[in-house]
């Protein structure tokens, strides 16, 4: 038998099609795909919806599908349209495809974000919407500057109708695909002036040969809908369309994709309806839910095999999300059967929650888990403060993802500057920060003049201001504004002598106009107000204003630079797409999570998005997920009981391990079987008589079966004042009293705060308990 002839050099060097990939390489890139993933890659013709659950290999499917289309010669790189939501995702996709098929991926000129691709189209046809191809794209600051000019021209109060709020509203209108002439009458701003301001804004941008980010898509819609020949040109060009994160598309993006989809319908959308969590910024989960109606005959492929999390984590997440009605349905599974159950812990209060999580992080670190492999995911940024302070105290390195640390936030620094100036007139840095915040008509030039005179005379800025008020060195209007400012500071300093530090802070923020300034900001104002509310509540743990400010200074001083190995703290919205071996999910309480505001504003739709957010949080965990909630929160000096989140009750008991601090359940001090907390209406708090709460209750009642099967053990809290720090609420105890607790045994009373006791138990150590849980020994 003779040996076969050696391969010819020309054969080895021969081109293998547009992708430049040899048949063996094709087999390589398809190897390792599970059956559903391979189906999603190889089903290239017609409309396809890939429902990709968390951790199911979505990105691999997308990139491999693109590579497969190119490698099999179905299209050339410039005939593919692939859109993502972030530049990072687009960059990673291009890198992966290049790794699979080589340099041909560089020809993917239409792979990018929605806005970057839309900008390319707009450059080519700018004259059709009154622009030149050299148009500029305005950033947020420029947009707000234009809005301010328009508001002033319309003689509107820019403190009440802020440029930021107008800019945000215009962006919302553009995300809905509304041009000024199509704006519904129900959409308004400044008592009927919204339509006119929007039209003037667009005209102003056109005169500047500029557009904002919203215009990139909006102008595309105008061009493609009014010029059928151009739309047809792009439909012929884009033989295949791929869309990432389809559940997060807004109306404008949806309309844009429909206009570009060819008659062949070769469109593949990848997404997860259970992870649609950006409704607050315009995302429409209905876009993915109606895909089969939009594209009759579409093939739906479900990716349900999870490669990230354990069996119990997936079971808990699946059971939770099953309560949503608006979903296409899928069940995640894994071959990984080991792993701990999801832990649910009820703790005494927010301080105990922060202490518990910090201690467990330290324990995990000693067991070999890196800090960077642990994350604390909160519903809102104001929840971060307690954890940041605890981590600083224990020297646990941490990084806040997606924003500044709590005490570095602008609104917190502003509040502290007011307090510092009230405490000390010599604090010129505090003076400079807040003398014109909110706007008082004191310009930068005047402020610098005051500071210069202060330095020249060796006095504080406040002393210099008092002297300047009697001179003509400043304009009359500036002197009046400074006089009012000095009078306010003096009044607040007097008030500080007879009030608590949190009452002082609330008064300053209200009387200075700072609160109203945030309320007028529809974009981020509410978040800032929530942070300020958290600030005032955190002050209640200190003896006075001086002690509090010293604490803040120490925290800021101890706060070290970010470490490569640090615990990650972020909001649940910011955690999407990330994964960590150990995830802590604190604050699962009614009104916090689900957000009461979300329920009030959107009813059942808002509740379902909150539940999807909880699902996203749980599925960030690879090996260990720990949920916690507090029985009590300190609100304006009073301890009030908190209701556990309804999401806690919706977790399947088979995948959950429940634990609780003694004192949450009543005098028995232990676990007890109970019907669902949500079978009855809470009886306290105006927030629970809101329309949103009533809608949620009606929905729960409507879908409930006539006879509810026995539920699993859950944590129950009464809607009443269980404890108070008010000294007037004395309970007959004195320091040194010997007491007995059913679980903790014997101990002595060390501190009395109303009917809340701090007891030093002989065996259990120091514990906080309500007096009804102990008896005199």
TrEMBL record:
GO terms for molecular function: 3'-5' DNA helicase activity; ATP binding; DNA binding; hydrolase activity. This is DNA 3'-5' helicase. Residues 1-20 are annotated as: Disordered. The keyword Nucleus does not apply. SUPFAM superfamilies: P-loop containing nucleoside triphosphate hydrolases (SSF52540). The keyword DNA repair does not apply. Keywords: ATP-binding, DNA-binding, Helicase, Hydrolase, Isomerase, Nucleotide-binding. It comes from the Bacteria. Residues 311-577 form the UvrD-like helicase C-terminal domain. One of its GO terms (cellular component) is cytosol. ATP binds at residues 52-59. Gene3D superfamilies: 1.10.10.160, P-loop containing nucleotide triphosphate hydrolases, PCRA, domain 4. It comes from Brevundimonas lenta. Belongs to the helicase family. UvrD subfamily. InterPro entries: DExx_box_DNA_helicase_dom_sf, DNA_helicase_UvrD-like_C, DNA_helicase_UvrD/REP, P-loop_NTPase, UvrD-like_ATP-bd. Residues 31-310 form the UvrD-like helicase ATP-binding domain. It catalyses: ATP + H2O = ADP + phosphate + H(+); Couples ATP hydrolysis with the unwinding of duplex DNA by translocating in the 3'-5' direction. Has both ATPase and helicase activities. Unwinds DNA duplexes with 3' to 5' polarity with respect to the bound strand and initiates unwinding most effectively when a single-stranded region is present. Involved in the post-incision events of nucleotide excision repair and methyl-directed mismatch repair.
């Amino acid at each position: 038998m003779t040996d076969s002839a050696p391969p010819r050099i020309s054969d080895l060097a021969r081109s293998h099609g547009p992708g430049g990939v040899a048949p063996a390489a094709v087999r390589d890139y398809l190897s390792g795909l599970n059956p559903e993933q391979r189906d999603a890659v190889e089903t290239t013709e017609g409309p396809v919806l890939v429902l990709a659950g968390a951790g199911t290999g979505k990105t691999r499917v997308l990139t491999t599908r693109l590579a497969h289309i190119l490698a099999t010669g179905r299209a050339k790189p410039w005939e593919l349209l692939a859109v993502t939501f972030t530049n990072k995702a687009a960059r990673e996709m291009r890198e992966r495809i290049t790794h699979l098929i080589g340099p041909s991926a560089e020809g993917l000129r239409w792979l990018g974000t929605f806005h970057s691709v839309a900008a390319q189209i707009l450059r080519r046809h700018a004259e059709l919407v009154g622009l030149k191809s050299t148009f500029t794209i305005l950033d947020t600051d420029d947009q707000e500057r234009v809005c301010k000019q328009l508001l002033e021209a319309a003689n509107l109060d820019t403190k009440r109708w802020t440029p930021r709020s107008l800019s945000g509203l215009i962006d919302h209108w553009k995300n809905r695909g509304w041009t000024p002439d199509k704006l519904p009458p129900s959409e308004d701003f400044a008592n009927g002036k919204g339509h006119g301001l929007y039209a003037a804004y667009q005209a102003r941008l056109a005169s500047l040969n500029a557009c904002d980010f919203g215009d990139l898509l909006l102008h595309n819609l105008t061009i493609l809908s009014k010029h059928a020949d151009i739309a047809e040109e792009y439909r012929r060009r884009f033989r295949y369309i791929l869309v990432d994160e389809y559940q997060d598309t807004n109306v404008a993006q949806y309309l844009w994709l429909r206009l570009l989809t060819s008659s062949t319908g070769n469109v593949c959308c990848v997404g997860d309806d259970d992870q649609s969590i950006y409704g607050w910024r315009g995302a429409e989960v209905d876009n993915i839910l109606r895909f089969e109606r939009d594209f009759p005959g579409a093939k739906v492929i479900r990716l349900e095999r999870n490669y990230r999390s354990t069996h119990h984590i997936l079971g808990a997440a699946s059971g939770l999300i099953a309560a949503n009605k608006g979903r296409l349905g899928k069940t995640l599974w894994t071959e990984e059967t080991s792993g701990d159950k999801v832990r649910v812990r009820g703790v005494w209060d927010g301080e105990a929650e922060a202490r518990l999580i910090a201690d467990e992080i330290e324990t995990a670190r000693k067991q070999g888990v890196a800090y960077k492999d642990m994350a604390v995911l909160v519903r809102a940024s104001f929840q971060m403060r307690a954890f940041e302070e605890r981590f600083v105290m224990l020297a646990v390195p941490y990084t806040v993802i997606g924003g500044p640390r709590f005490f570095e936030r602008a609104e917190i620094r502003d509040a502290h500057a007011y307090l510092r100036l009230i405490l000390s007139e010599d604090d010129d840095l505090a003076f400079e920060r807040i003398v014109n915040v909110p706007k008082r008509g004191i310009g930068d030039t005047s402020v610098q003049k005051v500071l210069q005179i202060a330095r020249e005379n060796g006095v504080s800025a406040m002393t210099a201001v008092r002297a300047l008020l009697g001179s003509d060195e400043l304009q009359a209007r500036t002197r009046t504004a400074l006089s009012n400012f000095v009078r306010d500071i003096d009044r607040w300093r007097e008030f500080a002598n007879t009030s608590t530090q949190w009452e002082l802070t609330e008064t300053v923020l209200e009387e200075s106009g700072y609160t109203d300034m945030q309320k007028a900001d529809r974009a981020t104002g509410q978040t800032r107000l929530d942070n300020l509310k958290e600030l005032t509540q955190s002050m209640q743990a200190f003896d006075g204003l001086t002690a509090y400010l010293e604490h803040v200074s120490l925290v800021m001083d101890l706060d070290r630079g970010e470490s490569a190995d640090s615990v990650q703290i972020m909001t649940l919205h910011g955690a999407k797409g990330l994964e960590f071996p150990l995830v802590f999910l604190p604050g699962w309480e009614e009104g916090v999570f689900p957000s009461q505001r979300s329920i009030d504003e959107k009813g059942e739709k808002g509740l379902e998005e909150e539940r999807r957010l909880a699902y996203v949080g749980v599925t960030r965990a690879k090996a260990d997920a720990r949920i916690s909630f507090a029985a009590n929160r300190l609100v304006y000096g009073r301890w009030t009981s908190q209701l556990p989140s309804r999401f806690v009750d919706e977790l399947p008991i088979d995948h959950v391990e429940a634990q609780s601090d003694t004192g949450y359940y009543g005098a028995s001090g232990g676990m007890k079987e109970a019907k669902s907390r949500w079978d009855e209406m809470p009886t306290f708090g105006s927030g629970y008589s809101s329309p949103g709460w009533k809608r949620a209750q009606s929905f729960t009642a409507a879908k409930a079966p006539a006879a509810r099967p026995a539920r699993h053990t859950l944590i129950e809290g009464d809607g009443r004042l269980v404890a108070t720090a008010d000294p007037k609420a004395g309970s007959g105890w004195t320091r040194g009293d010997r007491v007995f607790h059913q679980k903790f045994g014997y101990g002595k009373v060390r501190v009395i705060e109303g009917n809340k006791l701090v007891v030093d138990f002989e065996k259990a150590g120091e514990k906080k308990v309500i007096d009804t849980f102990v008896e005199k020994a």
